Amino acid sequence: xxxxxxxxxxxxxxxxxxxxxVELVITIAVGSVVVAFMAMFxxxxxxxxxxxxxxxxxxxxxxSALRFIGRDLHxxxxxxxxxxxxxxxxxxxxxxxxxxxxxxxxxPLSNPALELDFTAAxxxxxxxxxxxxxTLPWSSTSAxxxxxxxxxxxxxxxxxxxxxxxxxxxxxxxxxxxxxxxxVTLSPAFKFAYGSxxxxxxxxxGPVTYFCDSAAGTLTRYSGxxxxxxxxxxxxxxxxxxxxxxxxxxxxxxCQFTYSSGTAQRNALATLTLxxxxxxxxxxxxxxxxxxxVP
Length: 295
What we know:
Elements: H1 7-14, H2 21-74, E1 82-85, E2 89-103, E3 122-129, E4 138-140, E5 144-146, E6 170-175, E7 182-190, E8 200-213, E9 218-223, H3 235-240, E10 244-250, E11 252-260, E12 268-278, E13 281-291
Antiparallel strand pairs: 1-2, 2-3, 2-8, 3-7, 4-6, 5-8, 6-7, 8-9, 9-10, 11-12, 12-13
């Protein structure tokens, strides 16, 4: 009888065989290529999504800032917008209004006790179109009344003479006898130099400046400071005048404010350009705001 296969030979044939070094290296290389391709298809869309999100955030921030400036421009005292700037800074200043009305100065409903007198200091008059944004009775010693600001010497509200009440004047507004009538009192009395063709009187809260500093990367709104004939052109000057600042936008890489005065045929035009940057993403928006300057 022939001898069968030995146990030792059978065990050697059944022994599991491991990876060789070459096979291991090839496996790692192929796996690395697969992982690289997978990373390329995953990371690139993720990076694109992040970049798009950053751009959308920048657009939203710039749009909000420009709309914020636009709202103040729309409510500015006529002919009170002025702009100055340097290599890395831009400043846009305006006189913000709280409300407006039309005063009574004569006509068929003439009443000397209620008319606004332009020949002498007057401490009381009424309106024919009321203030609509005030809760009556209303009073203040920090606001101003302005009539016929045309922005020229002798009729410029920034001069604090002739067409705007002095700082500290006590102004009170109360309801009149009719729906359209408000009674306005001033203490001390004030003589307005010029009447408005449209009988317009504005209640002014004070100056507002939007100060853009591309070196610091900020756009800041300053308010609460004193009216001055010379426009503040630096953050230090604004703070020195008593202003308080509120950040409107950060990441500002550049900005440009221009203002074209209106004429009898067209409104004034403010052109606002703002560029923001974040993590290599940059956007630039432009907004044009028409400013009504009929005093």
